[in-house]
Design a protein that fits this description.
249 residues, alpha/beta, 5-stranded mixed beta sheet
Amino acid sequence: MSAVGAFIPILFIFLIIWGIFYIIQSKNKNQLSQKHKKQRFYLSNKRIFWMVISYMLILILAAGIYAFIPQKQIPVKEHVGEDGYNMIADQLYNAAVNGEIEKIDPSFATNKWEKKFQEKQLNITTTNPDKLNTTVVVERKKTNDRRIEGVYYKTTSNIDGIDITDKIPLDHLKWSKDTLFLVPAEPIKFSYLLFDKDATLRQFTKEPSIRDGGFDSDFGSNILYLRIPKSLKIIESEEIGIQYVGDSN
């Protein structure tokens, strides 16, 4: 709200209060006899004037103090829309399946790990394929170093421009000898509040209501990128559909 717009409601309130006191004062003059004037409290024009002025000064002072109070706000990022988020997801996927991970935004790498692996084959499966939200991409190294390297990539998620990426859990990884289980994350309940200006104030500032455009949400995509030893055999579950970099299959 602009500085001028902030004082328009105050002026509106001032006029209402002044009108009320004016009506009361008029009734006092017309209805009270001289005898009653000596016994009852009588509001003169001067008293009414200073009462209203004092009230107005309090309102103006409160508005000025409020303007300088530090306010903690949730950072709101520019909303790029569904097409924009789909494009980001496509760019991440294309870079991963082509082995061009150096082109991926480093901020998308949420979890990196390395594991010693002595087995000759690796089974990759999931406990619940219907709820799995991860794409698995595998790249073979040129050496048999008996180590599996993994990176979890996650693009941003938001609700009405509010970044909730950190609140969205990743699918879990569970190891059992030569098997890697992908365990879908449990659903979460996310609540948030949006404060809107009252219609009485918006009629002066001409600001649109946040309710006019509805609510938008965009959820990011997840990719588990695995770098495996050259000779390690992969046995994959049909439900997962692993993607391979080049001739890594």
